[in-house]
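CORE FACILITY INTAKE
Project code: CF-77B
Contact: R.S. (postdoc)
Sample description: multi-component assembly, two entities in total
Requested service: structural model of the whole complex
Turnaround: standard
Below are the sequence entries exactly as provided by the requester. Do not edit them.
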Amino acid sequence: MADNNAVTDIKEIKAINKVTFKQRMISYKRRPLSLVMLILVAVAAFLSAAALIFLIVYILVKGVPNLTPDLFAWEYNSDNVSCMPAIINTVIITFLTLLIAVPFGIGAAIYLAEYAKKGNKLVKVIRTMAETLSGIPSIVYGLFGMMCFVTALHWNLSLLAGGFTLAIMVLPTIMRTTEEALLTVPDSYREGSYGLGAGKLRTIIKIILPSAMPGILAGIILAVGRIVGETAALIYTAGSATGTVSGVMDSGRTLAIHMYVLANEGLYTNQAWGTAVVLLVLVFGINTLSAFIAKKLGSKKG
Amino acid sequence: MDKFTIEDMNLYYGKFHALKNVSLNMQENKITAFIGPSGCGKSTLLKSLNRMNDLVEGCKITGSLKLDGEDIYGNMDVNVLRKRVGMVFQKANPFPMSVYDNIAFGPRTHGIKNKKQLDEIVEQSLRDAAIWDELKDRLKKSALGLSGGQQQRLCIARALAVKPEVLLMDEATSALDPISTGKIEELCLKLKKDYTIVMVTHNMQQALRISDYTAFFLLGEMIEYNDTDTIFSSPKEKKTEEYITGRFG
């Protein structure tokens, strides 16, 4: 049907509705304030972009020359200050945290958005608490994790304690973004599904969750970003042991902590820059991957 | 044969008395139309027939509603009720998935997993909804890419796929162009051989063209209910006549 309307050569069309430079100047002459506004927002956009680009280029220039094979040696020692164990720890902590936080976060969000009655007092309390919790500085989570998991539960400094602490930290983020995503699913989908005799559970699993998936993934990506970049909440829970871990009950440092310690000691500044590049690439990789997944899931429904 | 028997039904949204002492019977394999100005309760009554009003908080119903003599608000499983009494909404609401999956959603919900059986149901439902020829080559494409008229017929096909006994249509053509509306009206006339159809419409010509019985509602009361020809040619109530001749509403 649309083929009938296709234009063979788009260049042959001479459009009269193009806004020329001269026309623009005429309208700015009458309203000079809009020109001022245009310049202001353009400068703001340029400066923001420039700051980001400068930061990335600076890290790359300082870091890339320090990306030696030594930095990626399997075993850490004080000569090579390898970040390989830290990379492995980061991956372990990320999975561990998501494993705990994602089911609880999504489950809680489903309850709030789909099951709880609108205007329920408990729901309001939970929402306010989640919002407050997501604004608390991460060091507070770190101290809580130390008191609760490390000391009281005797898990000592371990990836497990770190993972649980981070899970509590990112839980509100995942819960809130998932809830928002569920609430944006049009009610007409629910009506359509119930109207065909589908029950609540089936409607949620087959219709609502798939529709909300891009929003849910966005929340998880946000959470991964916080996990990978976190230091304060981990120093007193997962610790900063340098070696390769043999299990989740071992203490180990993530990349961000590794970098913090290197920079802090002052002896390995170059390696710290190298680690920064690794961290940058890791975060970039995670974002690209999840954008790809979101697109894949999104394109299924066109 | 009476498909629906409604006696002394009252419905409240919170403190608002939306339907007052409604009693009517609707016949099997006929098209019954509800007409009346906006807010008169006709859609509300329609949604009470398959308990879609359950989703509205603060909705209270009294009286008795029966489907084939069985109490709708009694021990009947609500999901089974909605399988028997399908619904097409005012705005086409295809799910964000392929045409095929949209149609197959209902049958899969009710336990049909066999691929061949599903294929047959999808084809038959699309044929019944007179849209098979338009869609047979794009079953795997997203249903959201269809035109408004196609989406609405897809929703009708989706409703037919669970093999209901009754089809409720809530102003199903109000958002469509005259050509799509004509197709859906033709479809209704064809479908009434096998289904009981209850429709809400703002379009009186539509009620006159396709319905067998018409009920006129005003401010939550059923003013008049009779066969369509009588309602439109010699209404008993003055209010009905005024509404039909366009003096208010």
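Facility notes:
- The interface with chain B takes residues 117-118, 186, 188-199, 202, 206-207, 210-211, 300-302 of chain A (CB under 8 Å).
- Chain A has a mean pLDDT of 86.
Invoice: internal transfer
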